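Record 1 of the preview.
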Amino acid sequence: MSDSDALMWHIEKDPLLRSTITVVWWLDRVPDRGRLTERIERATRTVPRLRQRVMSNPYSIAPPRWELDPYFDVRFHVRWLAAPGDGSLRAILDYAEPIAMQGFDRARPLWELSVIEGLAGGKAAMILKLHHSLSDGVGLVRMTSALVETAPEAPVTPRAMPRLPKGRVLTQPERVWDALGHEWRRALGRVRRMATAVPDALGALVSDPAESAAGARDLAASVGRLLRPTSSPLSPLMQARSPSVRFDTLTLPIERLRAAAKRAHCSMNDAFLAGVAGGLHRYHAAHGVDVSHLRISMPISLREGEAGRIAGNQFVPARFIVPVDIPDPIARMQAIHALVSRQRSEPALRLLDEVAAVLNRLPAVLSTTLFGAMLRGVDFVASNVPGPRFEVWVAGARLEGVVGFGPLAGAGANVTLFSYLHHAHLGIGTDPAAVPDSSAFVQALRDAFDEVLGQAA
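->
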């Protein structure tokens, strides 16, 4: 594991900081069981991480390692179930909530898939649950692409099944040597980077000492902002936290969202964040609470070039304060655009793994306390995950929509946008202790997004 992934893994000693991703897929019919079983088997062979479990290294001399599960049993990970309740959308979301709340079996690979049959109108759903240490949202799309097809018909000529991933369970002495070797290689990598960076820094210091000193101060200040603990959320309304979650969803026309952003000379992500910010302001106002700013946590993708095509985590979590009380949606989009642009240029974001390495070397109780202090003051999380712009099928069943629910990880709410075809599906996860009236919260978001969409030319 990278140090940042290991930190996500370790802080789950606090149940409020769990990093569980839940995805609900809506299908127009029940997928063919044999074809889906074959696709899942193929996926676990082409994406080895799906057959790997997390193993701690002796004496914590290195971050935990991914190791092939010698007892991998797909029956544990894939369940076929009858639709609960009346088979409605609400019933499926209600069913998905306790799945998301439950911790993972740490002796097995960190994912589960439930296929729900018998929904209203003969439709079906799939609930995918996985740990964030497996992948970020963009990587998740690439991982699950092994499950989908671009046509409803089965291939005329079946492809050969890929070979099983290679690997074996290491003995305790082998784990020690492997961990020591891992840390040795990482240390050499740091030395090489320093050998390259130090001469450049010294040269810059000689040629322009004032600018170099200013750059060092900027980096130190950026690291301070990244690590600054926050005692409590800014919202006076959404203060309480619990291990529970409530799921809701909204669907927006993606072209109108893009058009609204274009009119403001902003990105679609800026329009999305402006809608969420406006919804939070409306929710507080409905409860007689005047709030001007809230603290957001937003993943900033580091995916670039060929390396960006690899599944896994390639993001850094940025925490910053956003205005929520700007009445004009165009001005709100533009203000958020300027804030996000500044966040993307924060120097410390590129040092997150180094910061995580320091935290991981501390006793688990202390690292959980320190990192938890960074997360507990977050009011809401917002994430934008681009999905396929073309139609896909799952073992003969047409995919009608996808809703992703990101982890609360100490926040009061998480709103995740997943785009597919012509729609932006919002996965709205709320902590019932912070948001006891989720219907009012969803209505506030709906009204705010109507306002943003109304700006479309």
